[in-house]
Specification:
Helix 5 runs antiparallel to helix 6. Helix content is 66%, strand content 0%. 30% of the residues are buried. The protein has one domain.
Length: 228
């Protein structure tokens, strides 16, 4: 007669030798609102996340969809911002030209500049991601900055209505534009430090590039429109 196999050793308290330990659930922000992918809920959550980042809240990333699908959908943000940017640029150009209608070349130039900026900045950061050793956080950084650009363009579009107030309104728009640029610099800096790297030099370079690419896009768009 064979002897019975020895019993299993006593498991540690609170665990089982045959069952894996449960994986803790991801902590999400109590302020986040569920929304389907690509829905208004996702846009709303991204806006709350942008505000949370500016407010230095530690749970700000929980508002963004940082999955590969969220990365792709984040490029809808510059597309949604395109008419807002053209609208604001047209009103300001009309005020500066002193005409009753908006100069059509200025509209084409504004639209082209926005498209060039929206495509060139992510592309340039992608090329620099490996040399700067920031590849790991590249996708999340682009998601966050894409959505931020939409909300900042909303502010500029509303502020462009000041153009109807004449020269004083134009001065007010310029002041708001300066504030928006400062917010963008702060936002890019914070997102870069939290998502890309803690090193100051690479993040500072990215902030400078974010402004420089926009300026070059404006210059290139003006030149292309004049050629056409």
């Amino acid at each position: 007669m064979t002897s019975a196999p020895p019993p299993d050793p006593d498991p540690s308290p609170g665990t089982s030798p045959r069952e894996p330990l449960p994986t803790p659930a991801r902590k999400t922000s109590p302020y986040a609102r569920p929304g389907r992918a690509g829905s208004l809920g996702e846009i709303f959550n991204a806006g709350r996340g942008a505000l949370a980042l500016v407010a230095l809240r530690p749970d700000w990333t929980s508002f963004f969809d940082l999955t590969p699908g969220g990365f792709i959908r984040s490029f809808f943000a510059p597309a949604l911002a395109l008419p807002l940017y053209v609208f604001g640029a047209g009103l300001v150009a009309r005020n500066m030209a002193g005409t009753a209608t908006v100069p059509i070349p200025d509209l084409w130039s504004a639209g082209l500049a926005h498209i060039l900026d929206a495509a060139a900045f992510p592309g340039l950061i992608f090329l620099l991601a490996r040399p700067l050793q920031i590849s790991k956080g590249y996708g999340a950084f682009i998601v966050v900055t894409n959505w931020a650009s939409l909300f900042l363009n909303v502010i500029l579009a509303v502020a462009s209505l000041l153009a109807f107030a004449g020269a004083d309104g134009l001065e007010g728009f310029r002041l708001i534009s300066l504030i928006v640029i400062c917010i963008w610099i702060f936002f890019t800096w914070r997102a870069g430090r939290l998502l890309l790297t803690k090193e100051i030099a690479p993040v500072l370079l990215i902030v400078v590039l974010s402004i420089g690419v926009g300026a070059l896009a404006d210059t290139a768009a003006d030149g292309l429109v004049k050629l056409l």
